[in-house]
Design goal:
By secondary structure, the protein is of the alpha+beta class. Helices cover about 25% and strands about 15% of the residues. Strands 1, 2, 3, 4, 5, 6, 7, 8, 9 and 10 form a ten-stranded mixed β-sheet that branches.
Length: about 400
């Protein structure tokens, strides 16, 4: 009892003794003891709902006749940004297209703004507009790209420039093999889940020049900037009629390992051939691109044994040891087809003719020496594995 009176007396008269830290809890007001309560609300029957009571009390305070002088209380809540439209919606696509034009215009004005997406240390040296090469359409409407699983020539430490020019001639398959493939392909198109896509049994005969001189002169015949490209003196051999030609030696037969076929509507979607032109006197400075309609990965042929076991040995194609190739300009019919591709790259200029030709086993062909000539700089950059199948070694 004496102790309580001492505490009460200390609140009226100042004590000369300091309060012990452990006794400070005893000086708390009585209303602070026990569980904390929410602020009293004007609505008695809602006092147990703490969330509503708090909001009601705050609203009542803000609605008083005198507003708070604190400027932060006068600020309005920041407006939330509108949600992003769906990525498939026209509004989203339109906005992204508009943004791309704005970014491109800013980059054209100041090339230092252009940054590589992954290598930030690179700087833009020059820029080219990308333009479709409408003058380079073949009569097929697109190009083939061919890759080898093995180096077609023996590996060495020096790149063989003969690989820049070669002739690839599609082989002739036995009729039974073609029929089986067509039926399997039709079954796959009808029900791709239960019928896997069949591998194309098409074969390709690969021919290569004997010397680097033949390869270089053959390339000069296709150089549009060479004023002597039509000179017959560039031919390095004579054919049976005594006319000039280029000799290409048979190397081996390849078969299809993998392929991707596109149509006119999708030929620009996956892969393009590009050519840089820096000479503004000849044409506009730009990067010209052309479509790729067919991509093929070839490997040395290993299917002759299968055909032979199936009793089709008599249908095996006889392959010439050499080809005599001459280079000529396109005829008028081929030119007219190319002009139609130039007018509308997506429209097939001969759908009826091609359909009839496929039924008869025929397809439109280019001039001799240009249909299968190609520049394949990737050949020697492929795997230099020199493993060859036994039949391929016998053919060489």
């Amino acid at each position: 009892m004496t102790w309580r009176l001492a505490i009460q007396a200390s609140s009226k008269t100042q004590s000369t003794h300091s309060l012990h830290p452990q006794d400070r809890m005893l000086l708390r007001p009585l209303q602070t003891l026990g569980k904390p309560k929410a602020a009293d609300s004007a609505v008695s029957f809602l006092r147990r709902t703490e969330y509503i009571s708090s909001v009601t009390a705050k609203s009542k305070h803000d609605a008083g006749p005198l507003r708070s002088l604190n400027p932060s209380a006068l600020r309005r809540a920041t407006k939330r940004p509108s949600p992003e439209p769906d990525k498939d919606s026209p509004a989203y696509v339109k906005r992204k297209i508009d943004q791309s034009f704005s970014v491109a215009a800013a980059n054209l004005k100041d090339k230092s703004r252009v940054r590589h997406p992954t290598k930030r240390n690179l700087k833009l040296v020059d820029s080219y507009p990308m333009i479709p090469d409408l003058e380079a359409f073949p009569d097929y409407g697109g190009y083939f790209t061919i890759k080898f699983t093995n180096n077609p020539v023996p590996a060495s430490g020096v790149y063989d420039k003969r690989l820049l020019n070669a002739v690839i001639k599609p082989g002739t398959l036995p009729e039974e093999v073609e029929t089986t493939f067509k039926l399997a392909k039709q079954a796959h198109e009808r029900d791709p889940e239960n019928n896997p896509k069949p591998t194309n049994p098409q074969t390709y005969n690969y021919f290569l020049s004997d010397t680097h001189e033949t390869s270089e002169k053959f390339n000069e015949r296709f150089d549009l900037l060479n004023p002597e490209r039509d000179n017959d003196e560039l031919y390095t051999s004579k054919n049976s009629d005594g006319h000039g030609c280029f000799q290409f030696r048979f190397v081996r037969t390849y078969e299809t390992k993998d392929e991707v076929e596109l149509d006119n509507a999708t030929k620009y979607d996956e892969e393009l051939l590009i050519a840089f032109n820096d000479d503004e006197m000849l044409d506009q400075k730009a990067v010209y691109y052309s479509p790729v309609m067919h991509r093929v990965v070839m490997r040395p042929q290993r299917s002759k044994t299968i055909y032979r076991n199936a009793g089709l040995a008599e249908d095996v194609e006889e392959i010439p040891d050499r080809l005599a190739v001459t280079v000529n300009d396109y005829d008028e019919k081929t030119r007219s087809i190319m002009d139609k591709w130039k007018t509308d790259p997506y429209k097939d200029p001969f759908p009826t003719e091609q359909a009839e030709g496929e039924d008869e086993g025929e397809k439109p062909q280019q001039q001799e020496g240009t249909a299968d000539a190609h520049s394949d700089g990737e050949a020697a950059q492929q795997n230099s594995d020199e493993d060859q199948d036994a039949e391929g070694d016998e053919e060489e």
